[in-house]
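Incident log, structure service

09:12 report received: a user says their structure output differs between two submissions of the same chain.
09:20 pulled the input from the user's history:
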Amino acid sequence: MSGLTLAAVGDISFARKTEAAIKNHGLAYPFAEIMDELRAGDIRFGNLESVLIPEDFPLERASGRPLQSRDVVADALRLLEFDILHMASHHVLDCGWRGLMHTYGCSRTLGVQPLGAGPNQHEARKLRTIEKKGTTVGFLGYLQAGDWTLEGGGGRIAYLKAQDVISDIQRYRGQVDVLVISIHGDIEFQPAPSMPRMTLCRQIAQAGADLILCHHPHVPQGVEKWGDCLINYSLGNFLFDTDGYQIGRNSNVNRSHVFLVTIENGKIAHWRRRYLRLHPDEGGRPKPIPEKEYANEDAYYRSLDAMLADPDALRKSWRENCLRRLSAIMRKFAADAEADPKQFLRKYGKVLFSDMAQEYMQGLYEMAREEYEKQAYGDFEYARPFAPYEQ
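09:34 re-ran on a clean worker, output below:
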C-alpha cells in the first residue's frame, strides 16, 4: 500500500446568498480560489448542510425558512469531485423526506456517495467505501436528533445512537483498512465539544474507529488523538452564507480549514490543516488566508487543540454555554408562563428532551447538583438546609 491523503471539509450550503452568487457569477465561483487545497486529497469528504430541490418543488409547503437551493447549483459540486458527502445534517428534513430523497438522487447522479441517509434504514447506515492506492477507506455517518429533525425521516436517516454506531463498527471493521465515522451534532458556536460529545467520541474511538470527523457547531474545534483514533471535533463551515444568524453569535463562523489526513500502510500517519476564511460579502465562499496571517491562525487552532487536554477549561466552556442556553430558554418560557401545562410541554418538550438538548441539560443538571450538595448534608440547628437560598 502506498500513501494517500484524505481531504475533509465542513458545512456546505448552497442556500440564500451562496445560491445567488452562483447564479450571478457561475458554477465555479464559490471554489475558484481553493481548488488546489481540495485537490491535495486523493479522497474528498464534506458535509452537505442544505438540501437540493427541483424547480417544481412546492416550496410553500416546506417548513419555516428551509435551507435549500434549486438543484441547478448541484453541478457546482461536480467541480469539486467529492467522493463522500455527509447528508444526514441538521437541515436534511427542511423540505421533508421528498427534499431529502431528491438531494440523495442528485448526489448519486453526480457520482458522489451520500452518507448517513437513504431510501431506508439499511441504506442510511450502510458502509460507503473508497479504494485508492491499494487502501480501502470506509465511511459511516450519523445525525444527532434535535429540535430541527426530532427523529423524523421515516427511517431514511441514521440517527446517532451509541449502541448503533458500535454495532456498525463491529459489523464493518474487518472490511476496510481505515474506518471513518462522521457525526453531525452537538452545540453550535462553541470553541470546544460538550463533555457528553467528547465522551461519546472517545467511546467510538475505543470501539475501533480510525478517524472521527464532526460537524454542526459552525466554528472550528480542536483535534486530538485518542488511542489510535484521530478526532476532529468540528470542521466548521466550508461554504456558507454566514450573515445574520451565524455571524451574530460568533465571528469564528468565517474561520475555515481543509483537514488533510495522510494514510500510510493502512494507518493514519499524520495530519495537517490548510487555513481558509469565508467571505460573507461574496456568498460565503472560502479563500486561503494571506500568508502574513498564517502564524496567528495556526496559534489560534493550536489553542483549540490544547483545550482538549485541559479538563477544567473544557468543563468551564461547556458550562458557560449551558447557562447561555438556559438564559435563552427562560426568556421563551416567560412568554408562556400562564400556558396550559400540556400545551407548554408540547411546545417546549423538543427544546428540553431531544438528544441534542441533552448536551446542555446534562451540564445544567451537574451544576444544579453541585449547588444542592453545598447545603444538602449540612447540620442546621434552627433552619432548613436550603434556608440560605431563600434569603
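09:41 both user submissions now match this output. Likely a transient worker issue. Closing.
09:42 reviewer note: DSSP finds eleven helices and 16 strands in the chain. Residues 129 and 386 are 58 Å apart (CA to CA).
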